[in-house]
Design goal:
With 349 residues, this protein is of the alpha/beta class. Helix content is 37%, strand content 18%. It contains eleven helices and 14 strands. Strand 1, helix 1 and strand 2 (25-28) form a beta-alpha-beta unit.
Length: 349
């Protein structure tokens, strides 16, 4: 079991901080070319465009071989291994099942094949149509005046429908089946593990767009659509915790099947329609028991801290992804991992 941080595709101070903490595995995005070397993104909860703009020509797209090769080499030469790609080509037409979905699926297939060629073992993806992860505040005060993200479903629903109108759960399930039938065989051939992330927040509908991966049972249904060793989960603890279920029970459930391919180690307080993200030692989940569960089910993959509060002295320009809270999280996770490994797996003296 390896600890990782999400790092940008170009070197910066976060790369050095990771190495100084002994973190040598990276979760990264795709090397989109925008100012400053960071992929442009919408704030959490803002609808995304259906028709992608400015998709580069073949050989220059960030999911093509050469841009990925150069990115992997940058990390390798710095002493960091790229273990997970947590980004995708445009996929909203595939999720909605509208004209152009087959082109988007071909882009995903290209990405997976190139990941296989470059030895990048895990792709983290999701099936959240139009709106990715959503929050209604990115300035909620938490311990000591740190700022965190929170979600209030009643506030979000006041926004009304998005530009795509209503989208049913049945549509999304059928489109997911279609997608998996095309992509899973490619992942098997390429030796890449697909790690499907649950819907965040786990509510049945968001501004008229169904969310289907909102319970552990729904995640199992998604796995059963196309059974394969290559088809598994990103087990996002915070999202599963906000479902209102026993996180440890479901680590055991999916872990014993070998279906946890990647872990987001974080926590919340609250339930599906109203929750606050917390520091890693301040949420509603027993994090020591969670770490024990991963070890006991034989999880040997990568986990990263995921979202953490913004701390004093930071500008809160990337809510959930500033650095100080994640430095604290890595230290906390290292302590948990060491305690578990020494008590669970060391030989008696």
């Amino acid at each position: 079991m390896e600890l990782a941080l999400i790092l940008p595709p170009w070197p910066n101070e976060r790369w050095k901080l990771a190495l100084q903490m002994g973190v040598t595995h990276a979760v990264t995005t795709l090397p989109f070319h925008v100012a400053g070397g960071h992929q442009a993104s919408n704030p959490p909860g803002v609808p995304q465009p259906i028709v992608p703009v400015d998709v580069p020509p073949p050989e220059h797209r960030p999911w093509d071989f050469m841009p990925l090769l150069l990115m992997v080499q940058r990390f390798r030469e710095a002493g960091i291994t790229v273990s997970v790609i947590e980004a995708s080509p445009p996929m909203h037409r595939a999720r909605l099942g509208i004209e152009g979905r087959d082109e988007e699926i071909e882009w995903v297939i290209t990405l997976i094949r190139n990941m296989g060629k470059l030895g990048i073992p895990v792709w983290c993806w999701n099936w959240m149509a139009v709106i990715n992860w959503a929050r209604t505040s990115v300035t909620t005060p938490t311990r000591g005046g740190a700022l965190t993200t929170s979600y209030d479903h009643e506030l979000m629903e006041r926004a009304g429908l998005t530009h795509v109108g209503t989208v049913s759960a049945e549509q999304l399930w059928e489109n997911l089946r279609y997608f998996l039938s095309a992509v899973v065989p490619v992942a098997e051939e390429a030796g890449v593990q697909l790690a499907l992330h649950p819907d965040d927040p786990p509510v049945p509908s968001l501004r008229g767009i169904a969310r289907i991966l909102i319970t552990p049972q729904a995640l199992q249904r998604a796995l059963d659509l196309h059974p394969s060793p290559a088809h598994g989960l990103t087990f996002c603890q915070g999202t599963v915790s906000s479902m209102g279920v026993d996180v440890i029970e479901w680590i055991n459930h999916f872990g014993k099947q070998g279906k946890i391919h990647f872990v987001h180690f974080r926590d919340v307080r609250g339930g599906p329609t109203n929750f606050v993200e917390t520091f890693h030692d301040d949420g509603q989940t027993d994090m020591l028991r969670a770490m024990q569960a991963y070890c006991r089910v034989g999880f040997r993959g990568v986990m990263r801290p995921d979202h953490a509060p913004t701390m004093e002295g930071e500008p809160n320009t990337e809510p959930g992804y500033m650095m100080l809270g994640r430095l604290f999280a890595i230290g906390y996770m290292k302590g948990l991992r060491e305690a578990v490994l020494k008590t669970e797996f060391s030989s008696p003296r």
